[in-house]
Design goal:
heterodimer, A: four-stranded antiparallel β-sheet, about 0% helix, globular, B: mainly beta, seven-stranded mixed β-sheet, four-stranded antiparallel β-sheet
């Protein structure tokens, strides 16, 4: 099965709405967790990350908390803007691995309307 | 350069032809990755280089796919005898050292769009 599962899109919201994009993972050990964002016409960019349980990653008003007990890393933002319209990817790696490979979810398309 | 640079940005090729995709990583980055992004498949890992060697090439989908890296810098992904199912965006990424769990951020290029007709 998938090692990273994120909610299917597309997600359509009005400006200033609250955003949650769910992400759960399966892994042995203690992976590092990431959210990447892909804006239209651009490459993947790291949005935020967390490397151990209970860590909270945050950037540009987005937050995600590493929940070991629920194996989750849900992305949240309190008030979305039109400029947040993009595809969001949850990803994990294997903590301490020297291989550096990332395992991605399938991505969630977010569209924010003014 | 400032970021990961890939070329060509777009490539249309006929089925059965060979293609080469080039990646120029961020200067000083020893780790380099190739991923593939296609509709219905999401982001698939292809191969990882540390320096010029490839400790993980488990994601290459068939023996038609190969990659090399020279001088610890530029990498080339080669697809021989292309098939229509090879149509995808091929993403290159690099990091200062092994990325992901080792703490080094992985930076992605904008990708090479490949269309096989």
């Amino acid at each position: 099965g998938d090692s990273v599962t994120q909610m299917e899109g597309p997600v359509t919201l009005s400006e200033e709405a609250f955003l949650t994009i769910n992400c759960t993972y399966t892994a042995t050990g203690y992976p590092s967790l990431f959210w990447y964002v892909q804006y239209p016409g651009e490459g993947l960019q790291l949005l935020l990350k967390a490397t151990k349980a209970d860590d909270k990653g945050s950037n540009k008003g987005f937050e995600a908390t590493y929940r070991k007990e629920t194996t989750s890393f849900h992305l949240e933002k309190g008030s979305v803007q039109v400029s947040d319209s993009a595809v969001y990817f949850c990803a994990r790696s294997d903590r301490g691995s020297t291989l550096g490979r990332l395992y991605f979810g399938r991505g969630t398309q977010l569209t924010v309307w003014p | 350069g400032a970021g990961v640079s890939q070329s060509p940005s777009n490539k249309v090729t006929e089925k059965g032809k060979d293609v080469e995709l080039r990646c120029d990583p961020i200067s000083g980055h020893t780790a380099l990755y190739w991923y593939r992004q296609s509709l219905g498949q999401g982001l698939e890992f292809l191969i990882y280089f540390q320096g010029n060697s490839a400790p993980d090439k488990s994601g290459l989908p068939s023996d038609r796919f190969s990659a090399e890296r020279t001088g610890g810098s530029v990498s080339t992904l080669t697809i021989q005898r292309t098939q229509q199912e090879d149509s995808a965006v091929y993403l290159c990424a690099s990091s200062l050292g092994p990325g992901g769990g080792s703490g080094n951020t992985i930076y992605f290029g904008e990708g090479s769009w490949l269309t096989v007709v």
